[in-house]
Amino acid sequence: MFLKSAIDRVVGALLAVVVVPVVLVLAAVLAARLRTWPFFGHRRVGRHGQVMRFPKLRTLRPDTHPYTLKEGGTVIAADRFCAFLRRRHLDELPQVLLVPLGKLSLVGPRPKMPERWEPTDPGYRTARQLVPQGCTGLWQIGRHAHQMVHHRPAYDFCYLQYGSIRMDLWIMWRTLLLFVTGSTVRLDDVPRWVIGRGWVSEQHIRAVGGARFLVPRTAIGSKGPTR
Predict the structure, then answer these.
(1) Would you list the domain boundaries of the chain?
(2) How wide is the angle at C-alpha 64 spanned by C-alphas 116 and 77, nearest 5°?
(3) Is this prediction's pTM over 0.85?
(4) How far apart are CA 207 and CA 211, in angstroms?
(5) Residues 157/138, Cβ–Cβ less than 8 Å
(6) Which of 9, 24, 103, 123 has the CB geometry, 3.0–4.6 Å to 98, for a possible disulfide?
C-alpha cells in the first residue's frame, strides 16, 4: 500500500499536468455548446467514509439534479458530444487533480454518492471503503459501467481480494484503451498474471459484513460469469 501511495503521488502529479490543458479545452467546448458553466461537483464518499467534493465536466442537461442516479433512464446526455464524453469517461478527467492531493487513488473502487442519494448494503459499503477510492478501476473499465456500481459488486470485490500493483498498472492501461477505442472488459478478461494477494483479506471483508459479495478466484481470467 505504501508503494501504491507513492505511485499515486508521483504519477498523479505528472498526469495532472497533462490533463489540465485537455480539461480546459473540453470545458471551453462544453461552455460554448451548453451555454453554462462547464463544471459541476457533488459529494462522494472516500476511504473510511470521508466525504469529498467530486469534480466533473458537465455533460448532462443543465437542469439535471447532481445526484440523479443512472437508474430509470433519467440520466440523459445534453447532446452527442456529451454522450461521447460520457461513454469514454472523459467527463471524469478533472478527478485526476484529486490524486496528488491524496483524496483519491489512481486505481480503486468508484467513490459512491452519500447514502441519502445512493443507498447500499452496509457490508458492501464498508468493505469497499477499506481502501482508497479511485479515479479508475475494474468497474470503470468494465462492460457494466452503464449500471450502478453496487449492482455489479463483483468488480469491486475482485479488486479488494486480488488487487496488486500489477493489476493497477493493467487497469490504467485498459483505461487508456477505453479513452481511445471505447473497449471494455469483463472479469474473465483480467489476466492471471496481474492477480495478487489483494488489498483486504477475506477475513476482514467477512468481519465488516461483506461475506456474500466475495468473488471466487475462478471467476477471474476463466471466462466465468460476472455476477
Answers:
(1) 2-219
(2) 120
(3) yes
(4) 8
(5) no
(6) 103
